[in-house]
Amino acid sequence: MTDLQLNAHDILSVADDLFHTQGFAETRLTHIADEAGIPLEIVERQYEDTAHIALCLYHQLANESLDWVDTLPIGTISERYHALLSHKLSQWQANEEITVALFSTAMLPQSNITPIAISQGKDDPMLSAMHSVVDGASDHVVRHAEDITLMMYAFHFLVVIFWLYDRTDNKQASHIFVGFLREFIKLIRPMMVMPLVSKAMSQMAKIIMLVFGGAKLSSDK
After folding, report:
1. Helix boundaries (H) for the chain
2. C-alpha dihedral (51, 19, 84, 72), degrees to nearest 10
3. CB 197 within 8 Å of CB 188
4. If you average pLDDT over every residue of the chain, what do you get?
5. 181: closest CA among 89, 40, 79, 56?
6. What is residue 214's predicted lDDT score, i.e. its pLDDT?
7. Do 164 and 100 meet the contact criterion of CB atoms below 8 Å apart?
8. What φ, ψ does residue 188 adopt, rounded to 5°?
9. Given a cut of 90, is residue 183 above it in pLDDT?
């Protein structure tokens, strides 16, 4: 690893620890630099603010999810999708400070963290994870794989927003929502062979992605 990569690794690792122990709002770049033993100017050169560090950590979680999908057993698309979303719920809960801070910042009208920076469109590991869920499923159908993959990817952003607002005990409502999506995918997958259904689902996914940063992705087809 280069010195730059080592610095970035150390900065992210220390920042992650500080966000968990003292909270995102109470953590400054100076705290991270001091704890990492790295000059503040180097930290500032790589990260504009703590929100951009949270963004990088969020992308790390997405890469972890992509690796995690490889451990999924063969099953239906709905079963594998439910397993991935349940994994994401646990992941977001374990990294609540980062997730809440990042999306809260992105919601501000003048924020320099944009939705496209979070979703990354075709470069998002979560989109690749959705592809893996579909490609490794027992009911995989090549013809409609792209449409159902994009729909599942778009829906996972609805889940994270729902989770952010969920105040039920242990986020019970979010788990119920994820269970509903399992049944919805189970119901809709056979119907995707119908052109009108496939087109409607694809349009809905593209509309969702216009909000969550995938405008370029949604105009590719």
Report:
1. 3-22, 29-36, 40-46, 50-69, 77-94, 96-107, 115-119, 125-135, 145-165, 172-188, 195-211, 215-218
2. 120
3. yes
4. 90
5. 79
6. 60
7. yes
8. -80, -25
9. yes
Q: What is the mean pLDDT of residues 59-84?
A: 96
Q: How many residues does the chain have?
A: 221
Give residue for tokens 């105009």.
Answer: 219
Report residue 124 as tokens.
């998002």
40 touches 5 (CB < 8 A):
no
Query: Amino acid identity, residue 150?
Result: L
Whether 212 has a pLDDT exceeding 50, the answer reads: yes
The tokens for 161 are 């927003």
The CA distance from 202 to 111, in Å, is 29
Residue 124 CB neighbour total at 10 angstroms: 20
Cα gap 92→75, rounded to integer Å:
24
For the beta carbon of residue 37, count every other beta carbon within 10 angstroms. Answer: 8
Question: What 3-state class would DSSP assign to 3?
Answer: helix
What is the model's pTM? 0.88
Does 173 have pLDDT greater than 80?
yes
